[in-house]
Amino acid sequence: MTEIACEIYQAVFTVDDNIRFLKEIRKIADATGTHIILLDADRLAGRKHVEAALRHARRSWEGGEPIANSFEMETLLYAGGTRQCQVGSSFGVHPGENRSYLAVCPPAPGVRERLAGLVTFVEEDWEAIDPAKRERLAALFSITEREIAVVGEERFRDLVLERVALLDVYR
């Protein structure tokens, strides 16, 4: 599978205006020659979900048949397991408080320092899927109780990752 040349961080921040905030992110990305993708941690099944979305987006992008017109949006589409940009963008930043996985692809010197003016980097355990998050993820990815019963509760995350991979099949 395509290797992901990305650094992934966890960050918290508040957004008043999505467009203005994303323009600042784009300035940093352009100045450092990289892509910066912010993925809503509350809509993801952990770091493996981020890695899977990046891996599939990279393969799609390098294969010359991307769904979206930017690598950032391609990653959000895979994160959401959807071809619809409106749905995919809901896996990015939103107004108010954000907890995001922040991917820098490829890694570039000075990016983290520049981003520190916009976000606060955190080292927290975001891997747990509590009942509320499980319910939210099940709804977002159309995962049924029957599917969960078949594979077992301990493999719930795998069902989400399967939805990411299935986007290639539905293309």
If you had to describe this structure to a student in words, what would you say it looks like?
The two termini are 18 Å apart. 29% of the residues are buried. Helix 2 packs across helix 3 (71-80) and helix 2 (47-62) runs parallel beside helix 8. Helices cover 48% and strands 16% of the residues. It has a single domain (7-169), classed as CGI121/TPRKB (PF0523-like, 2-Layer Sandwich). The chain has eight helices and four strands. The protein has 171 residues and is of the alpha+beta class.
The CATH fourth-level homologous superfamily: CGI121/TPRKB
C-alpha Rg (nearest Å): 16 Å
Strand order of the largest sheet: 2-3-1-4
Q: Tell me the number of strands.
A: 4
Number of helices: 8
Question: Kindly state the mean pLDDT as a whole number?
Answer: 93
Amino-to-carboxy terminus distance = 18 Å
Query: What is the beta-strand fraction?
Result: 15-25%
Question: Which fold name fills CATH's third level, the topology?
Answer: PF0523-like
The largest sheet is: 4 strands, antiparallel
* Structural class by secondary-structure content: alpha+beta
- In total, the number of domains comes to 1
The level 1 CATH classification is Alpha Beta
Low-confidence stretches: none
Order of secondary-structure elements = EHEHHHEHEHHH
Helical percentage: 40-55%
Q: What is the overall shape?
A: globular
- CATH architecture assignment: 2-Layer Sandwich
